[in-house]
Amino acid sequence: MGDKPLRVLACGDVEGRINALFNRVNAIQKKSGQFDLLLCVGEFFGTTSEAEAEWEAYKSGAKKAPIHTYILGAASQETVKYFPNSDGCELAENITCLGRRGVFTGASGLQIAYVSGREAQQEPAPSHCFTFKDITALAAPLLSNSKFRGVDILLSSQWPRGVWQYGNSPVSAMPCSFTGMETDTKFCGVSSIADLADKLKPRYHFAGLEAVHYERLPYRNHVVLQENAQHVSRFIALATVNNPAKKKYLYAFNIVPMKNMDPAELVKQPQDVTENPYRKPMKDGKKEKPPPSMADAEEEPPSQFFFDLGEKKPQHQQRQQGRKRHTDGDRPNYPKQPRKPPQPTGPCWFCLASPEVEKHLVISIGTHCYMALAKGGLTPDHVLLLPIGHYQSVVDLASEVVEEMEKYKSAVKKFCKSRGRRCVLFERNYRSQHLQLQVVPVPMEKCSTEDIKEAFMTQAEEQQMELMEIPAHTDLKQIAPPGTPYFYVELDTGDKLFYRIKKNFPLQFGREVLASEALLNIPMRADWRECKSTKGEEEDQAKQVRSDFEPFDFAVDD
User: Fold this and answer.
1) How far apart are CA 285 and CA 56, in angstroms?
2) What does the DSSP assignment read for 421-455?
3) Which parts of the sequence belong to the Cwf19-like protein C-terminal domain (predicted)?
């Protein structure tokens, strides 16, 4: 079809009023010409006997849809019976159910991503609900493609939470189609759909279920002056077919598939474009992208870093659990509950509670952070400092977590100094979803702090990276707003080296520098995957480090 635009109709909740919908479509096509397809979001089927009778006419072939019609799956238990296959199928001539979730690509190259139903509130999920696994299965194959720029259209039953931010506000209150009660549309939707929309960057995103017509101003998918220009996204919520208030339920538009468009034409920005509603603006005008809540397709293999707490809990943890029950003092009858650490919305191998982690590598557990032996470490006492809760980087940490992380850093530095070693810490906030602060002890006789600094600066320069030296007391948040990819090193003097990652950053850079001939002179250990030990060897190593570190472990004393 080349660059000829497709003529598309999008519709809100039909709720069984199929004749009314197709009569309206016929009238539009008679006046404006034939459209290529009709996309229906929200609830297509109704629950009344009249609605069932209307559908039977199309199902039996007595009536035929006047246009290729694609609908989402059930959004309530009452309408599940109309869908014989949750993976999608043709329900009647010209009427196709897309399924629970997936990507539909037409012959023209138009790419439509879709997720049906409501977010599951329980496990196992009812058949009219989607789960985190559905969202991940939909997004991961697309995001793993290095050439992925976005999808043409995203269809969802539910709204993305917070879509109105930085844009025009939706109608403040309308009766919800699901409960029949008035609901504030500013609180409609779910964050999982917002996260999906942020990642898939649809040119058009349609949703239903809220009996509201809301056409948001277009929003950017890039940070101005920091990222290359990208296409804008438009979110449109559509009302219910034949609603008494005559709110808009059909939306007509022309679209040339992204793959057929001239790149310069694709990224043109309309005058009324706004900031991305799913990212927080910073004071300096930069944007903060929230930590990823779905598995990152480009994440480095996780097995280097994870540790387990199974049936036997280390002594430090038992003590730490006891500490959490202290009362407030001025409210003696109400024990103060600890603030629950942030949780990932899906699987995260780095969170301490993950059932997959290897418990034998844990060295110490505090209230907000923990320390563990690095798998495939550069040296026998190479450890990691990690938050117990789900934080992506140092600059994302809550104040109480920062405070304890500093206590761990101080304890580890004293530990290293007592053994005649310099403590080198580094973090790579790039292609990782949970903070890992690497701590590598370097024997003092091997090199000076200046040697370490020079090695990092030299190797960065060789790879055309500008590693900046920043003052010891500089708060990283001042130069790296949350969401910024970066690499930083902290030396035993407190001096810091910082690099704002642009693209193609070598994942093993920190290890490569420390393993080089100028420092530890163990180049064969630059890649942790080449340094694997047996579980028995790891247990012995962790036991030794745990014993050596105990005099410095404040978590044992608390």
Assistant:
1) 55
2) EEEEEEEEESS-SS--EEEEEEETTT--HHHHHHH
3) 463-554
